[in-house]
Specification:
By secondary structure, the chain is an alpha/beta fold. The protein is built from 13 helices and 18 strands. The chain has two domains: about 170 residues, Acetylglutamate kinase-like (Carbamate kinase); about 160 residues, VC0802-like (2-Layer Sandwich), CATH 3.30.2130.10. It binds aspartic acid and magnesium ion. This is Aspartokinase.
Length: about 400
């Protein structure tokens, strides 16, 4: 007997037919002798609607009330799924975050899970009852409902799997696994059988939106085996697991891209100690997330250009902050460009093999694509290029690294 957490995303519970379908799948797991806890998202589109209603009343609203509103989407689907299970003869009950409870910190709208009380749930699961738990929500230290940030149900599921010491956390979604790159762009993209936590983390953070980044961090920390699979088709998905579980490691496992990037260049910034701190300090205070950074060496020893990237949504705020501090920073002018894309090549094999970066640069060069910024980590190489080359770059790199499906 195994203990399994099954998570169903918004498209999997989008209407009554689909909820009935989910109930059948859940029952099948129970019938094969497993203890099952299910985590559900709100019906697809529901959370967007709830968020929009809050903003329509007040663009800047009380985050605690926002949480009270947006958490309702999941309350609906837990109750409906419990009814659907009971209807096919499977005992089940729904749990809101505050009922277990799932304790979170007090950052409303973006809370982190601190701990989950599972005693009663485990006792009931032991008697064959399916626990249907609302994703995305918890209980803050102020005794008010909290939510975990968009896409947070993935994190709820992994956290629950860790708390229950579950054998597996199966994430059912509208894609059937993790691909070597975006299959909508590269038709030869392949589904991966397995991928390491670290690679998945890099893929998630650079824009492969299969799993919420935080859920992967949590899975890695607690060594929860996560399987991503389709809720519409019966076929194996992708297992996100420890490196030891992967026998044949690829040099490069995946190529990700993020269009949500904007480039900022400060022309002729003074080249002296403290300047970087003076620039990035105020940006951090304004909650602008800075990603890639390059600073040129100055020719005259006095001034140099500094380029960095921010998320598209943060560009205007970043510009405003930098313009406010122009006097203190003493740069000549500010240039920005939202039409850039970050393309990243990811693989744990990079740690022990040379030449992987070179292949990337060579491939882009032979397509005539100019690289604007480069950054690397132990298992990732990222380049910033003009957005219009996204498709071309992805296809060329996918072929160059031998990832194309036969
Ligand atoms: N319903 C929430 C959202 O749309 C959480 C989730 O689905 O993961 O972001
Ligand atoms: Mg999702």
């Amino acid at each position: 007997m195994a203990r399994i957490v099954m998570k169903f995303g918004g498209t999997s519970v989008a209407d009554i037919e689909r909820i009935k379908n989910v109930a059948n799948r859940v029952k099948r797991e129970v019938d094969s002798g497993n203890e099952v806890a299910v985590v559900v998202s709100a019906m697809s589109g529901a959370t967007n609607q709830l968020v929009a209603w809050c903003s329509q009343i007040a663009p800047l609203h009380d985050a605690r009330e926002y949480d009270a509103v947006v958490a309702t989407g999941e309350q609906v689907t837990t109750g409906l799924l419990a009814i659907a299970l009971q209807e096919i003869g499977q005992s089940a009950r729904s749990w809101c975050g505050w009922q277990l409870p799932i304790h979170t910190d007090g950052v409303h709208g973006k809370a982190r899970i601190m701990s989950i009380e599972t005693d009663e749930m485990i006792a009931r699961m032991g008697k064959g009852e399916v626990a249907v738990v609302a994703g995305f929500q918890g209980l803050g230290p102020d005794k008010r409902i909290s939510t975990l940030g968009r896409g947070g149900s993935d994190t709820s599921a992994v956290a629950l799997a860790a708390a229950l010491k579950a054998d597996r956390c199966d994430i059912y979604t509208d894609v059937d696994g993790v691909y070597t790159t975006d299959p909508r762009i590269v038709t030869k993209a392949r589904k991966l059988d397995k991928i390491t936590y670290e690679e998945m983390l890099e893929l998630a953070s650079v824009g492969a939106k299969v799993l919420q980044t935080r859920s992967v961090e949590m899975a890695m920390k607690h060594r929860v085996r996560v399987q991503v699979l389709s809720s519409f088709e019966d076929k194996p998905g992708t297992l996100v697991c420890d490196e030891d579980e992967i026998v044949e490691k690829e040099l490069v496992s995946g190529i990700a891209y993020s269009r949500d990037e904007a480039k900022v260049t400060l022309v002729r910034v003074a080249d002296r100690p403290g300047v970087a701190a003076a620039i990035f300090g105020p940006l951090a205070e304004a909650a602008v997330n800075v990603d890639m950074i390059v600073q040129n060496v100055s020719e005259d020893g006095k001034s140099t250009d500094l380029t960095f990237t921010v998320g598209n949504a943060d560009l205007e705020r970043a510009k405003k902050v930098l313009e406010e501090h122009k006097g203190a920073l003493g740069y000549e002018k500010l240039i920005s460009d939202p039409n850039v894309v970050k393309v990243s090549v990811i693989g744990v094999g990079m740690r022990s093999h040379a030449g992987i970066a070179q292949k990337m640069f060579q491939t882009l060069a032979s397509e005539g694509i100019n690289i604007q910024v480069i950054s690397t980590s132990e298992i990732k190489i990222s380049v910033l290029i003009e957005e219009k080359y996204t498709e071309l770059a992805l296809r060329a790199l996918h072929t160059a690294y031998g990832l194309d499906a036969a």
